[in-house]
């Protein structure tokens, strides 16, 4: 079997496997629906996910160790992941192939040349990693500055090292070292003069452009939602995701750009490709040209996926190991081997010191800039309700990949990608919307916490979520609190019985309880025309027949001595009939005054019991802005938002 | 196709070099991955808390519970007399002491409305501390209104400057979590701690004010201004909370200024008609006793203020201030 065929089989296999994992991430009765499939496997293989979360949290969570496999293989082989495994890469290669269909060889060689803008992906990588490193940096600065002699040593040492390194730098390594030192120096000096304030923070933004979270999010939220619209095999009702079109536009733009240049995204944008390119610097095996009696026919570059110029000085950091050059070379000059390429090779991208430094600095500065909005503190947006098990907000943003797995798995479809609600740094992170789905957060469901690949939503047992057994003392996990808007609530504002919210409140004892209240209906103060034991005819009543026969209306005398409230069982335009076992003690006299009252049960929330599941909000018959709504106050994950002592 | 032999050698050497580098990279990555591996993920949902702090006691056990009550309209004369009655400020402040004064700067309102500690009184106490040899005097509070506005409009900032004392406005970084031993409310809660670092003596100076939720704001409630975070939550159980404040903060002495008492519309006041000239200055090493007496200036008794009973039960001090045999004097 030719190696290119093997590569195609591998790509097809992994693409199908990826799509299969996306498809089965649904909740239902079919055998193939989520039953322990390793649906996070591609995210776990992604070294950028591992590296990003290591920078923000200092730990490598559970399944993310799979990334070590990718890293080790990349160190040995180069960017095999891009060319052989990455499902997004496979999509690009396929559309790129269609884009070049029928074009001349010289045109194809032209679009497959290395372009100096390929470096942008390295900048993107550095920028995103720098943004993730803020907390680490702040911690190191704070640590260094806690010990006061250390700060002088640090300052003197760093300054002299930087001066030395900048003055003597010649090779790439020294250049990189000096860049790092300059960075440290800048921040040390800043911290020295201004103190390491609380603005220096981090959040994980790699998921915006990291291909695996990107393709997971795009397929989960847009492609499958559209594809399943008619067959409805995955979910019984149409899935909706707020602002999914933005995710879709980004996805299709990335795909369609392949028509201009094959693997456009991989070559220019992909931060994972950049990381793997850097990791493959010492790769033992690589594409090489055997000896320099090459005719420079450039056939090897006709279908070169990476744009790495194997005919000339090959750029191994751009090579995605598509192996097309191996096959195209009529002279068998190109091999995958351990030798140096005879026409030379460039192992690392050429990044200028200035460029790297600017990128890193702006990456580190991004989060403090976003932090100026102040919405991580007192000015937090209470409409941002995170799924149960979500870590405290700062720690949550240290881990969330924006991959959309929780949004996909949520059986009720209430987990939604946020727009700007959670701040710019919270774009596409999961927030709950109780209006959009099929219910609120299901009491006995912990699916999102189990699927989350990075524990931004940490795994919860049902016992912990419900506050049972070993967790009884701590109580259930609260994600917010329901508040009643008495100006919109039917029994509170409109004299209409309702209490749908109370009935649906799933906790026991119910967090929503009712207070009985008898309200005199509009125009309900009436005067007797004549009456017998069970029937009272009123003057100018103008009632709608049987309007009062619903079992909710009562007749209340306001005359002294006749104070009992009687249930009305029927009425005509002017005649009201009361329950037969509650006759008037003596028939009311003409002119006696009565009130027609409606019995209301006005709902009220017991904040001690409410877990913020939002089922009440979902069920509330006030269809637009609900009369009972959940906001994030009193959520378990934030003590500063608690309502009670 | 053949290659020169030496070319092979170079290649072999290069390959070994590369293998070594790759090997080191693989080993390094694996070690790092092993070292950072976290199989379980984070547990617990609450915000993390590091290193609890705890306020030491600043009281002087040798001196015991002492109290003086002076009648007079002039705060400066009254405080001098009240301290003199207890043996002068030298009894409490020694040479080299670093003194922290906790004022009540709660509101951005002018001094004549008496919603805040009187600036002349603060200046006099600070001056006396310096005179007794204090090496530093620092003033702090975490007020309700904007701190800069509070210290400016109340005149307390100018007062601090005039005597050469230091003013510490509550910075975010000054707050450290604390837990009050034996308490149930103040648990892992932010405390205005940094101003206490290196301090040897603490004096609280508070006016006597009406307070709708707790009945009265005096010496004990003054410590509310040492608490950070979303502290208004404690209004749900204010009496136990004030008791815990008093358990947390054991001052060297408290000065309770009843020269003008805010009788109504407290604790903000806002009108001269809210005030009543009660012409009394209290100095006490027992904050509970001081407040028990202060209650009477408000036309109440210690029994009207549950937090006084609770503080007494927690052995913070005594509500029977008469048992301290307070020294009474008349100024001017």
In short:
The complex is a heterodimer of chains A (645) and B (332). Chain A is of the alpha+beta class.
Structure overview:
The complex is a heterodimer of chains A (645) and B (332). Chain A is of the alpha+beta class. Among the domains of chain A are: 3-124 and 207-341, no CATH class; 393-478, Alpha-Beta Plaits; 520-599, Elongation Factor Tu (Ef-tu), domain 3 (Beta Barrel), CATH 2.40.30. Chain A is 39% helix and 13% strand. Chain A contains 24 helices and 15 strands. In chain A, the strands form 5 sheets. Chain A has a 6-stranded antiparallel beta barrel. In chain A, strands 2-4 form a two-stranded antiparallel ribbon. Chain A has a two-stranded parallel sheet with strand order 3-5. The longest helix of chain A is centred in the N-terminal third of the chain and has 23 residues, at 172-194. The radius of gyration of chain A is 34 Å and the shape is elongated. The model of chain A has no long low-confidence stretch (mean pLDDT 89). Chain B is α/β, with parallel strands linked by helices and 332 residues long. Chain B has a single domain (67-330), classed as LarA, N-terminal domain (Rossmann fold, 3-Layer(aba) Sandwich), CATH 3.40.50. Helix content of chain B is 30%, strand content 20%. Chain B is built from 8 helices and 12 strands. In chain B, strands 2, 3, 4, 5, 8, 9, 10, 11 and 12 form a 9-stranded mixed beta sheet that branches. In chain B, strands 6-7 form a two-stranded antiparallel sheet. In chain B, α3 links the parallel β3 (98-103) and β4. Mean pLDDT of chain B is 92; it is low at 1-8. Classes of the chains: A alpha+beta (645), B alpha/beta (332). β1 of chain A pairs parallel with β1 (37-38) of chain B, so a sheet runs across the interface.
